[in-house]
Amino acid sequence: MKTPEACPQCGAEVPPRARACPECGACPETGWSERAQADRLDLPDDEFDYEDFVAREFEGRAPRRRGPQRFWWVVACVVLLAFLFMVLF
Predict the structure, then answer these.
(1) Are 52 and 38 a contacting pair, CB within 8 Å?
(2) Which long-range contacts link 35-38 to residues 24+ away (Cβ below 8 Å)?
(3) How many whole angstroms separate alpha carbon 47 and alpha carbon 30?
(4) Is the pTM of this model over 0.70?
(5) Tens of pLDDT along 21-58?
(6) Based on the number of CB atoms within 10 Å of its own CB, is 9 exposed (0-12), middle (13-18) or buried (19 or more)?
(7) 3-state secondary structure string, the chain?
(8) Would you say residue 4 has pLDDT above 60?
(9) Total structural domains in the chain?
(10) Which residues sit opposite 13 in a β-bridge?
């Protein structure tokens, strides 16, 4: 297996033809495999089930969207108060 330019475990620069990482000691047996390099990307596994993840995360209820709706209610109240202030004073 070819020596990587950067250690997939700690990110340190690895000299060409090094047998192990000079920083953390990782070697082909402990972390230079293709699987170890892919694991560092934090990508979901091939068997990742998105629907199951959403069901567990939200416990069967749909996520509530509050951000934009709340913003427009605040804008409407501010405009209404400004209009009332101009009419009354």
Answers:
(1) no
(2) 36/8, 36/9, 37/4, 37/8
(3) 24
(4) no
(5) 888 778 777 766 555 555 555 666 677 788 888 888 87
(6) buried
(7) CCCCCECCCCCCECCCCCCCCCCCCCCCCCCCCHHHHHHCCCCCCCCCCHHHHHHHHHCCCCCCCCHHHHHHHHHHHHHHHHHHHHHHC
(8) yes
(9) 1
(10) 6
Hunting for tokens 């101009």 — which residue is that?
86
Tokens of 77: 């109240």
- Pair of tokens at residue 83: 């209009």
User: For residue 30, what are the domain limits?
Assistant: 1-89
Q: How far apart are CA 30 and CA 85, in angstroms?
A: 71
